[in-house]
Amino acid sequence: MKPNLSVPSLLAMASVFAVGAAAQAPATAPAKSSALNPAELTAPAGGSANPDTRRVRPRDTTPHGPTPRLADGHPDFSGVWQGGGPVGDLAQGLAPGETIPLLPAAKALMDKRESKDDPEANCLPTGIPRIAPYPWRMVQDATHVYFLFEGNIHSFRQVFMDGRKHPDDPDPTWYGHSIGSWDGDTLVIDTVGFNDKFWFDFRGHPHTEQLHTIERYTRKDLGTLENKVTIIDPGDYSKPFTLTFTARLRPNEELMEYICQENQQDAQHMHGSAGLPQNP
User: Fold this and answer.
1) pLDDT for the residue numbered 268
2) Cβ neighbours of residue 265 under 8 Å, at least 6 residues apart?
3) pLDDT of 260
């Protein structure tokens, strides 16, 4: 059974393996695992090293080949993936030279946040576009696309592909209300109806209930899934901005059971302002 460790503790463990300052995602070390070679940790786009050392994969084992397709001709996104969103810092997905257009009030809120209050560290959903440092599965059919998350509360997202519109007054939720459409080979997911509870990253970037995300998923090839996500939130940001992250296929793997709430003892021991954990 997977150790019941929260993300911040896992990050601290990652430093033991000397992944380096660039590795901003957690690592777990099950008792039955052999010694780990930090050089084997995969670093997906966005700057995060592969945090899931239960199933460490060498850098050169991402499968290669053409993008698989369904009978209707659309790309097949099915599979277990790793990465595809921010973990430590939202800015990991920015293009060179760009900055997060945070409004002053949002910056003041972010500066007051403490790491122990991070909802993700307290076993709550990550929201969008944040990703927990564990694998996740994508499943699609004619009317829905589903995201099944291994991490935290074993949560899921559903994307409606049947042409419906957003409700006029959506009930605010952690993952919002998502509708999908196709732009050529790119899956476009439009989401509104968020609550304001989740943080975008460990640093505590906030958002309001005005948040609107537009994700554009493109399967570049067999093993590479690109996510370009535009964040629109006039409550906390002066203008929309776009981030790019890349997920890697984890072939021949299944999601493992993960119960974050069970014996979670880490958040109460965390101290200091929100931010990336420091090496001990």
Assistant:
1) 61
2) none
3) 81
Residues with pLDDT less than 70, the chain? 1-60, 262-272, 275-280
Identity of the residue numbered 21: A
**Widest distance between CA atoms in the chain:** 54
What are the residues facing 148 on neighbouring strands? 137, 156
For residue 249, what are the β-bridge partners? Answer: 81
CA atoms within 13 A on the CB side of 141: 3
Rounded to 5 degrees, φ, ψ at 248 are -115, 140
Q: Which domains does the chain have, with CATH numbers?
A: 79-249 (2.40.128)
Start-to-end C-alpha separation, the chain: 27
Give yes or no for a contact between 137 and 155, defined as CB atoms under 8 angstroms apart: no
From the list 174, 93, 195, 182, the residue with the least C-alpha distance to 145 is 182
Which residues lie below 8 Å from residue 60, measured CB to CB, with a gap of 6+? none
Which residue in 270, 232, 275 sits closest to 111, CA to CA?
A: 275
Hey, which residues does 138 pair with through a beta bridge? Answer: 79, 147
pLDDT at position 270: 61
**224-232 and 241-249 strand pairing:** antiparallel
At 188, phi and psi to the nearest 5?
A: -105, 120
Query: Residue 229: which of 218, 219, 220, 238 has the closest Cα?
Result: 218
What pLDDT, in 10s, does the model give residues 4-55?
444 444 443 333 333 333 333 333 333 322 222 322 233 333 333 344 445 5
Q: What pLDDT shows up at residue 22?
A: 33
- What's residue 276's pLDDT? 65
Q: Where would I find the beta strands (DSSP E) of 143-267?
A: 144-149, 156-160, 177-183, 186-192, 212-221, 224-232, 241-249
CA dist., res. 76 & res. 66, Å (int): 11
Angle at 156 between CA 13 and CA 203, to 5 degrees: 40
Instruction: List the alpha helices (DSSP H) in the chain.
Output: 7-16, 104-112
